[in-house]
Q: What sequence folds into this?
């Protein structure tokens, strides 16, 4: 049987052939005319075929598109657009989507692959695997937290206590090795490697929905501390600028500073592919204080639209759009109470992932819909009518 990667490659070749034929038939290279994105083109006056009509996904359809497009037969999530490697984040995304879909077989294969290939002796997950083995054993706290959440959810949904046990064990490792007390409260470090002060901090790793669920399942009071600390740090960042940065640092006294990349090694401070997850994670929280923080981001996000990277005031610093930016804007809109417009923003995400397919885009087209429109992942969706 052909593997999913081979099928994807063959389909890509077919798409390129169609595009080449269209360009040859229309020397101007514009077979679809000037129709706005997401709409059907008008009658063609040449021989080139019209652009395919873009679809609006249900949450289940978006989830299935991600799993079918990027999860290999053995459960490995393959970043086909990034050299074919695998990261712990991707395994966690597949586990969350599989739980949301009720797909027990895919969940089992994705978790088994992650456990057998990425799990470290301390219980955390190695960040990156490529060409047959782990190439960076450092952990990424967002992946560990998402995977723990997925395991606890799977234990209940699939009636498998071993998943619950594994999730609680992974969650305990997160608390022990990837959190620290500061003057702002307990915070989630970027990973086990970020234990020296000032602490490397990624605002989009904080997940009130995950910490609330794991707190209820374990009874460990540190989860509530982490929820409060995440809210405090995010609030401090939004007092300094209208949008949160991709990366920040937190000092022991609780002082928070935006940073240009992890450990200050980036080009500049920006709201980009990481930070756009922040409004999504806070909008799905059941706590009104968290949702209010997501709503606070709406005005600057309206300034930037679906552009992938913005400065912290909302002005674009790049030209391209991204799925996660569209989902992040939908989250802020929904948190502010406009569910009808949130539905429109989620359609933008659907269309972007169809016109420019990518592993990360497909993952967040699915997760954005589930987290914002459905309670199947244990949160409180702010846009239930956008399903």
A:
């Amino acid at each position: 049987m052909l593997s999913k990667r081979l099928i994807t490659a063959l389909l890509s070749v077919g798409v390129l052939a169609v595009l080449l034929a269209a360009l040859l038939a229309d020397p101007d290279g514009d077979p679809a005319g000037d129709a706005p994105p997401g709409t059907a083109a008008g009658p063609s006056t040449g021989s080139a075929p019209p652009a395919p009509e873009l679809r609006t996904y249900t949450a289940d359809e978006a989830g299935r598109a991600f799993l079918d497009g990027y999860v290999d037969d053995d459960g490995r999530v393959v970043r086909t657009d990034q050299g074919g490697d695998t990261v712990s984040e991707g395994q966690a995304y597949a586990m969350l989507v599989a739980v949301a879909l009720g797909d027990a077989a895919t969940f089992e294969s994705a978790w088994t692959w992650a456990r057998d290939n990425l799990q470290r002796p301390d219980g955390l997950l190695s960040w990156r695997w490529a060409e047959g083995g782990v190439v960076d054993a450092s952990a990424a706290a967002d992946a560990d937290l998402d995977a723990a959440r997925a395991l606890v959810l799977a234990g209940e949904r699939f009636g498998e206590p071993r998943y619950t046990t594994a999730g609680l064990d992974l969650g305990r490792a997160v608390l022990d090795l990837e959190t620290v007390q500061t003057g702002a409260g307990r915070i989630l470090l970027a990973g086990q490697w970020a234990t020296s002060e000032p602490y490397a901090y990624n605002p989009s790793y904080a997940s009130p929905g995950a910490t609330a669920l794991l707190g209820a399942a374990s009874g460990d009071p540190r989860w509530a501390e982490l929820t409060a600390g995440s809210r405090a740090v995010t609030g401090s960042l939004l007092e300094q600028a209208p949008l949160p940065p991709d990366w920040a640092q937190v000092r022991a006294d609780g002082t928070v500073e935006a940073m240009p990349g992890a450990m200050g090694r980036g080009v500049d401070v920006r709201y980009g592919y990481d930070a756009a997850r922040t409004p999504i994670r806070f909008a799905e929280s059941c706590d009104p204080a968290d949702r209010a923080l997501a709503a606070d981001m709406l005005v600057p996000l309206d300034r930037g639209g679906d552009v992938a990277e913005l400065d912290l005031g909302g002005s674009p610093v790049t030209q391209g759009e991204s799925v996660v930016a569209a989902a992040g804007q939908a989250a802020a809109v929904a948190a502010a109470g406009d569910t009808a417009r949130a539905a429109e923003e989620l359609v933008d995400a659907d269309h972007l992932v169809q016109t420019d397919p990518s592993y990360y885009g497909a993952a967040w087209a699915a997760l954005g819909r589930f987290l914002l429109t459905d309670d199947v992942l244990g949160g409180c969706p702010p846009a239930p009518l956008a399903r």
Notes: The chain is about 50% helix and 10% strand. Residues 1-49 have pLDDT under 50 and may be disordered. The beta strands are 86-87, 126-130, 133-139, 179-182, 185-188, 199-201, 247-250, 256-259.
